[in-house]
Amino acid sequence: MKIISGRIKPAVAHLSVSLLLLSAPVVFSGQTNKPKAAETTSSVPGVQCVIGLEGVKPGSKGTISVQGGALHFDQEKKKSEIGVPAILGIYLGNESRQDISGLGGTAVKAAIPYGGGRVLSLFSHKVEVMTVEYTDANGGFRGAIFVLPEGHATMLKTLLVAQGANTGTHAPEPEPPKEKKP
Question: If you placed Cys at 116, which of 21, 76, 112, 154 could pair as Cys (CB 3.0 to 4.6 Å)?
Answer without folding.
Answer: 112
